[in-house]
Amino acid sequence: MPRKPGRATTSPATPNERFDIRDVAKRAGVSVATVSRTVNKVPTVNALLAARVNEAIRDLDYFPNTQARALVSGRSRLLGLLVPDITNPFFPELIKRFERAAVEQGYELLIGSTDDDSDLQHVLRRMIERNVDGVAVMTFGAEDPVLDELSHRHVPMVFVDVSKTDFPQDVLLVNYGQGMLEALQHLAALGHRDIGFISGPLKEHSALIRREAFLASMRQSGCTAREDLVLEGDHQLEGGMYGMTSLLRLPHPPTAVLCSNDMTAIGALRTLQQRGFRVPDDMSLVGFDDIHLSEFVHPPLTTVRMSQTEIAQSAVRALLSRIEQTTPRSAPQFFPISTRLIIRETTAPPALTRRPRF
Amino acid sequence: MPRKPGRATTSPATPNERFDIRDVAKRAGVSVATVSRTVNKVPTVNALLAARVNEAIRDLDYFPNTQARALVSGRSRLLGLLVPDITNPFFPELIKRFERAAVEQGYELLIGSTDDDSDLQHVLRRMIERNVDGVAVMTFGAEDPVLDELSHRHVPMVFVDVSKTDFPQDVLLVNYGQGMLEALQHLAALGHRDIGFISGPLKEHSALIRREAFLASMRQSGCTAREDLVLEGDHQLEGGMYGMTSLLRLPHPPTAVLCSNDMTAIGALRTLQQRGFRVPDDMSLVGFDDIHLSEFVHPPLTTVRMSQTEIAQSAVRALLSRIEQTTPRSAPQFFPISTRLIIRETTAPPALTRRPRF
DNA sequence: CCCATCAGAGTAATCGTTTTCCAGCGCCCC
DNA sequence: GGGGCGCTGGAAAACGATTACTCTGATGGG
Questions:
Q1: CB-based contacts with strand D under 7 Å?
Q2: Which of B28, B89, B90 minimizes the C-alpha distance to B59?
Q3: pLDDT of residue B95
Q4: Could you give the number of structural domains in chain A?
Q5: What is the Cα–Cα distance from B293 to A336, expressed in whole angstroms?
Q6: Which string of b and e fits B186-213 if b means at least 16 CB within 10 Å?
Q7: Interatomic CA distance for residues A303 and A290, integer angstroms
Q8: Better-scored residue on pLDDT, B11 or A189
């Protein structure tokens, strides 16, 4: 029986059949091995033959079957990307850059949004079953034990921040301190002393680490952080709104508030405006991340920028170097990610005769 | 030579080897065929054997190799999702729901963001090369000729809106008119007569169709649309800001503005606030889509909700039914998607003695 | 001038499944 | 009690690539 029964006869309405490597070989009058070598740019193939093969490839519009390739090579050319919440505007922006970097290298992205909680296990399972060649864990600071399943299988991973200092994986080290310190010095220079902080959800390592960075930067800039001014949010609008409400209820509210991410800051801004406070006159506000939206809220948000391009590119680079390397795993690498203050219009000197209006 | 050389001897530090179907067969004392049948729940396999196989599977933590499966079955269990811009908050929300629906059916998502313009071709190429089993085209109303490459290959597709009435593919028919009409009637009831519209980029079909729906609904609700009040935006904040700026410059600005999507409305809102206009007192504003953010801008945006869950589920359902069906393609199916007005706080009666303050 | 070496192309094994085909076995009915 | 038939389960052929190995012919050195 012919391999492809009656291609031209049974389905005349099917002009675009998909050709395989043997079709190309036949048309070019060479063996499949030569075709494969040509496609993979193995240098030993004769230039004349290569030209014939390439012509056949063009004529037939041939391209290799990904799964067959993956099967024999053992690599899927799929990269997993683990994010906490695709709905948070920070992440689509990151994903976009990540995708760009991956596609440039011939990889595709499998996005896993871990959303609330125990999704992580399912998401990981899906990635393992799809045979991802590497995983970028962008849930800022999550070296979850569940991830061991990956490391057992020697799937390369790259993390953003980790709490353990001896973590045996490649890590993107975000220099939160740098940007935070700049922000605090900026606020201090404006005359602020009572500076609040609305964190993310502290069960997320991401949030914990940013809070630590805030506290450290406070000490470093000579301020003393008032305990009652450090609140927990959820890295979303709601948390920012709720956090700001709580801060305003205090007997001595802060004159400036730094937020663990921009969405929190925007939520806080919303609450201030709803209650008739003017920003920055009545309260200064600083965000973190510099998402696109921050430039467009009113007033435009002063925030600390963390370069997403830098993160995406470093992560892909780290992953690929691990994937390509065949030698036993070498020491973990670290990739510094810088942060810096972007001053817009939500910071000003504190009102001298400020009275909370309740 | 053994198939897996020295598993236990050469790599003692590698506890989690990956097992294949033969390992399971050996351990269960059956043939690989029986294991495969058990895994795929073929009913003819003896219950006792099945139990033995399942035990072996559990013991070894076996799961089938996706690429081998895909290779032999010809299906990748990958669904392509084409969106115009992952950065627009509407789409992450949609993607999330889409992913949920796909994963439930054992499919994975390949997301393609067509961003500016001719990316489309590359994105499609990537999808074809990955052998997607189906593609959902969420670029609202884009039956681009480039997509022919998919239909030639008989890749099932599902669209949101199309302009051609005889389009030979499954289509999600969003009933824009319904929500638009509700919105216009609401505005009319409040006393508005001069109603503006800021569209999306008209090169996108999405935008064109929404504009048509607006104009049709205007006629239907007895209003006459003033030509000068219908502007082109870009479905982003910037377009909304710019559009509102233009409208305010008019000798007779509208008293209410409907926007083609929420981001546009939020941009317009931003401009109004920057210029000291109060919303809704000085100007009423209505968005479209009901993205999460809309509830949290200040004041909360009155908007037309289009159910993303409905879209995602219908799309996946349409795709799967095409993928599963082996019979020659049947007539295109249509899935109605409803829209409805969500009244929040950006609409009010027009100010009687309104003077633009320039 | 002959043999060793090497470059380059072809043959075939392999990756891990699914699935077709076939053999064996028990059962039913005559 | 024997023959046919229906089930079950196994052996083996795909799926479409990569690549180790083999083979052929050419080339260079002794």
A1: A 1, 3, 18, 20-22, 32-33, 36-37, 39-40, 63-65, 68-69, 71-73; B 30-34, 44-46, 48-49, 68, 71-72, 74
A2: B28
A3: 95
A4: 3
A5: 33
A6: bbbeeebebbbbbbbbeebbbbbbbbbb
A7: 6
A8: A189
Please indicate, yes or no, if residue B115 is contained in any of the structural domains: yes
Place of tokens 């007569």: B193
The pLDDT of residue B119 is 81
Place of tokens 């219009």: A345
pLDDT at B7: 40
> How far apart are alpha carbons A262 and A235 in whole angstroms?
8
- The domain in which residue A225 lies consists of 176-305
What mean pLDDT value characterizes chain B?
A: 88
Residue A225 lies in a domain: yes
CB A250 within 8 A of CB A238: no
* pLDDT-derived band at B219, boundaries 50, 70, 90: very high
From A260, A274, A256, A240, select the one nearest A357 (Cα to Cα).
A274
Cβ–Cβ < 8 Å for A179, A304: yes
Backbone angles phi, psi at B174, to 5 degrees: -75, 130
Residues A180 and A301 in one domain: yes
Residue B356 pLDDT class (50, 70, 90 cuts): very low
Cα–Cα distance between A214 and A223 in angstroms, integer? 11
Which amino acid belongs to residue B346? T
From edge to edge, which strands make up the β-sheet containing A195-199?
A: A230-232, A195-199, A256-259, A284-289, A302-306, A339-342
pLDDT in tens, A71-115: 999 999 999 999 988 988 999 999 999 999 999 999 999 999 987
Dump the DSSP string for A201-259: -TTSHHHHHHHHHHHHHHHHTT----GGGEEE--SSHHHHHHHHHHHHHSSS--SEEEE
End-to-end CA distance of chain A, in Å? 87
Residue B21's SS3 state is helix
B278: left (phi over 0), alpha (psi -120 to 50) or beta: beta
* Paired sense of beta strands A195-199 and A256-259, if any: parallel
HEC string of B193-245 equals CCEEEEECCCCCHHHHHHHHHHHHHHHHCCCCCCHHHEEECCCCHHHHHHHHH
Which two tokens mark B274? 């920057």
Confidence at residue B354, expressed as pLDDT on a 0 to 100 scale: 46
Query: Which nucleotide does the CA of B33 lie closest to, via C1'?
Result: D10
Same domain membership, residue B164 and residue B313:
yes
Separation of A324 CA and C27 C1' (Å)? 60
Total residues belonging to chain A: 358
CATH number of domain containing B102: 3.40.50.2300
pLDDT mean across residues, chain A: 89
CB-closest option in B95, B126, B266 to A108: B126
Torsion-angle region of residue A141: left (phi > 0), alpha (psi -120 to 50) or beta? left
Strands B256-259 and B284-289: parallel
Q: Is A70 a member of any domain?
A: no
Amino acid at A107: Y
Q: Determine the average pLDDT of the residues in B214-234.
A: 91
Give residue B358's pLDDT.
Answer: 43
Domain final position from B16, B41, B64: B64
In a domain, B356, yes or no: no
Residue A153 near residue A123 (C-beta atoms within 8 A):
no
**Cα B118 to chain centroid, rounded:** 20
Q: Please name the residues between 239 and 258 in chain A that touch chain B, using a CB distance below 8 Å.
A: 241
